[in-house]
Amino acid sequence: MNYWLVKSEPEKYAWSDLERDGHTTWDGVRNYQARNNLQAMKEGDLVLYYHSVSEKAILGIAKVAKEAYPDPTADDPRWLAVTLAPEKAFATPVTLDQIKKEEQLQNIALLRQSRLSVMPVTPTEFDYLLKLGN
């Protein structure tokens, strides 16, 4: 199993929207590195759901329900989407400020590549964030 982090502006599509809808197409990604990360996702992989811009916190865990397929919002079939489903909300959101203070998370992609919208997370980072959120 692999672990990932996806970022969404809560005003655009919040964690609560994913919980309400039961699944969503994760589309609109137009960065090659993020697209490659979508392509590497496998069904069942776990995904940290991060609210960017206004909230800056991880709110829960989603699961890859459907592996990469052509993005329905793109004219070019090289752009990809995946389907995500909610798995579990965090009891306590894990904020960016909190992540920055944690020694064990200093190499997390969220801090190193802050503009990337889809990124891998190591199993150790995932487990540590899970403990912080629950």
Please give a structural write-up.
This protein is of the alpha+beta class. The protein has five helices and six strands. Strands 2-5-4-3-1-6 form a six-stranded mixed β-sheet. Strand 3 and strand 4 form a beta hairpin. The radius of gyration is 14 Å and the shape is globular. The two termini are 21 Å apart. This is Putative RNA-binding protein with PUA-like domain. Residues 2-132 form the EVE domain.
Helix and strand arrangement:
Layout: E1 3-8, H1 15-21, E2 24-26, H2 32-40, E3 46-51, E4 57-70, E5 80-95, H3 96-101, H4 109-112, E6 118-121, H5 123-133
Give the structure's gist in a few sentences:
This protein has 134 residues and is an alpha+beta fold. It has five helices and six strands, in the order E-H-E-H-E-E-E-H-H-E-H.
Spell out the key features of this protein.
37% strand; alpha+beta; ph1033 like fold; 134 residues; PUA-like_sf; 6-stranded mixed sheet
Low-confidence stretches: none
Helix/strand/pairing class, anyone? Answer: alpha+beta
Major sheet attributes: 6 strands, mixed
Terminal residue distance: 21 Å
Order of helices and strands: EHEHEEEHHEH
Give the total of domains. 1
What is the total tally of β strands? 6
Identify the strand order in the major beta sheet: 2-5-4-3-1-6
CATH architecture: Roll
Domain EVE: 2-132
Organism: Rufibacter quisquiliarum
Pfam family, one: EVE
InterPro entries: 5hmC_binding, EVE_domain, PUA-like_sf, THYN1-like_EVE
